[in-house]
Amino acid sequence: MRVYIVDGSNMVRRPGYDPRFPEVEVRRTETMLDRLCRAAAPWAGRIRVEIFFDGPRREMVPVEPPVSVRFSIDGDADAAILGAARATLARGRGVVVATADRQLAAELLQEGARVIGFSELERRLREGKI
After folding, report:
1. Residue 14: which domain range?
2. Per-residue pLDDT tens digits for 51-97
3. Cis omega (within 30 of 0) on the bond before 15?
4. Whole-prediction pTM value?
5. Strands 95-98 and 2-7: what pairing?
6. N or C: which terminus of the chain has fewer CB atoms within 10 Å of its end residue's CB?
């Protein structure tokens, strides 16, 4: 089973993000989760998509397998993403991480993870190139 880890906060906060308007972030999050759930649904059982968000647990729109939403305990999703990638790699499984965070990407590459952009993730899911 292929594991995809998504830097959810990074994906939602791409260009145009303004912390003064939290309702925009909520709408963007809902849209992103819906899009990824629809694209991943046909591959349930073959892939797992873990979407990490900064901050404490909070209400989100419901998601269904193979998608799951995770929150970082200390508020730092980057550390949680790196830890999840390391744990997956330690079990001898490959992991693909979608992020635009250059520093996180560099650390993940050093650990042996594959790093892709958000557009590539969505394209892979749509086209079944999982």
Report:
1. 7-73+116-121
2. 999 988 888 899 999 999 999 877 789 999 999 999 999 999 999 99
3. no
4. 0.93
5. parallel
6. N
